[in-house]
């Protein structure tokens, strides 16, 4: 991947006191995002507000669309025009976006979507925290596909991971998600924005061969097809239909097989390069706490208490939630007594831990149905039980 | 006659504008959509517009397939979403002429909200809507444009819902250019598209076309050619007509013509002008 020179206009170098939502907007600007289409929804709106306030001094587009369907669709158009494009939303808006998340997947258009999760279903808890869209982000649009999703646990990470989300999205030509939550979104902390020349931003893989030979869906050696911009004279076609290398619709099982395998395999086969997690004291741990987002910070308190009580407990914090680090869970399952999985839902990522552990170690869910974070005592109780 | 001249003569004049490797198209014989595509191609040619700077965006449906056949940067998006897709594309690359080419179900039914808002913010796109009064791709269901009393597969005893008058809607939402023709007004459709290319802002052209396989057959309106001619012969050209008077009844007279032609700065121009005023030299203009 070619490195891209970062446009310093978008980079607010220095130490700031920002909430997670604002940090996402700053991360996007630093990554070179110059197109934001969105629709207001609590608790994500501050990202849109920040972007709207900042973009006139950077040069780009902020547009408030008529709904979230239009927002995500506009991103795909802008992406094909060569722009780095993003939107932000929460549960109800995320549901509306599903249709055209599928289109971005099918057209292999790089776009970034942040979901500042609140409690659901439906309107649920507009102002209160949830982590209940973790499966929706993976499976929410119809059909068979894979995406990339990251989960920050602090405003600093909101900034850092937004840049990474753009890099991953551009590299793999796939919608990439920042699955944060109301707590991290509204939490104010110190955010350090490095100088522009210290920020790593990758360039989309542009096609450079003869115009008449361009095939928008011919996979390159790394499985990712080259992209061109609308208006550059390639006069290419792309569609949401099952298509061949030319981007032309082909409605049969053979082509469907080729497309579906490609869309899935380009992520699966690159999973080890994509996946990031943070691991602590897992070497001789009896219990490993697997968590992500705000819950990992609450879990950390429980882990401290458990260690004081003499339990050998390690932590695995998911930074990439999708693709799921199943290989690492599988390895750990060979040596731990159990996993403890706290999450602000009634059991979502725990299913993945269970699947990866494949019966070698149980995964104990510590659920919280949303509206508040866990009490560390509840997680501690589960750790103690797991260590028995 | 030399071989070269013969070869030249054998070439269809539309070939340079179409993806010939995708022809034959999927439309039924007697369908009106192809006629509108011919007018569109003719307008492209006559406008001497740089084809590398024209993009076409379609949604889903019979007319939604147009993007697949025209040799431009062409995007076949999802049902109803051609307009927001075009919005992103246009704002992403403001030097492009972005055309939305889709059907009535796509633009006025499922995509109605996007239509209304794109017109309101005067997004600089040209929308060509082929209206065949029904959802044809899925088998002739009732649409937001179906005339009262027309028989449709999901209105098997006749339609009783009030239909949209699309030019009235476009006008009310602030479109800068609004015209309606039937597809047999070939020359006039072509001229309208050429004229619309010259204008800025949200431009809307409705073209009435027969659906021979479903709408015509179900309502016993004869073959495609009959209906094509019927629409043409029963239309009255009234340029500048009050858009409140443009309702289309079941098999009767319809008013066609150019109804709206106004000057109004489009979205990007409004943004740049406003921001310069509000922020002065600190503002970084976009797409100028």
Quick gist of this model?
By secondary structure, chain A is α/β, with parallel strands linked by helices.
Explain what the structure shows.
The complex is a heterodimer of chains A (388) and B (288). Chain A is of the alpha/beta class and 388 residues long. Chain A has 13 helices and 18 strands. Chain A folds into two domains: 3-197, Thiamin diphosphate (ThDP)-binding fold, Pyr/PP domains (Rossmann fold), CATH 3.40.50.970; 277-387, 3-Layer(aba) Sandwich (Rossmann fold), CATH 3.40.50.920. Chain A has helices at residues 20-31, 45-54, 68-80, 91-107, 136-139, 155-172, 182-186, 253-268, 271-274, 294-308, 326-333, 349-357, 376-387; strands at residues 3-4, 14-19, 35-38, 61-64, 85-89, 112-119, 125-129, 148-150, 176-181, 188-193, 201-202, 237-239, 277-280, 287-291, 313-318, 320-322, 338-343, 363-367. In chain A, helix 1 packs across helix 2 (45-54), helix 1 (20-31) packs parallel to helix 6 (155-172) and helix 11 (326-333) packs across helix 12. The longest helix of chain A is centred in the middle third of the chain and has 18 residues, at 155-172. The mean pLDDT of chain A is 97. Chain B is globular and about 65 Å long. In chain B, strand 1 (54-58), helix 3 and strand 2 (73-76) form a beta-alpha-beta unit. In chain B, the strands form two sheets. Chain B has an eight-stranded mixed sheet with strand order 2-1-3-4-8-7-10-9, with helices on both faces. The interface between A and B is large, with 47 and 44 residues. Strand 12 of chain A pairs parallel with strand 2 of chain B, so a sheet runs across the interface.
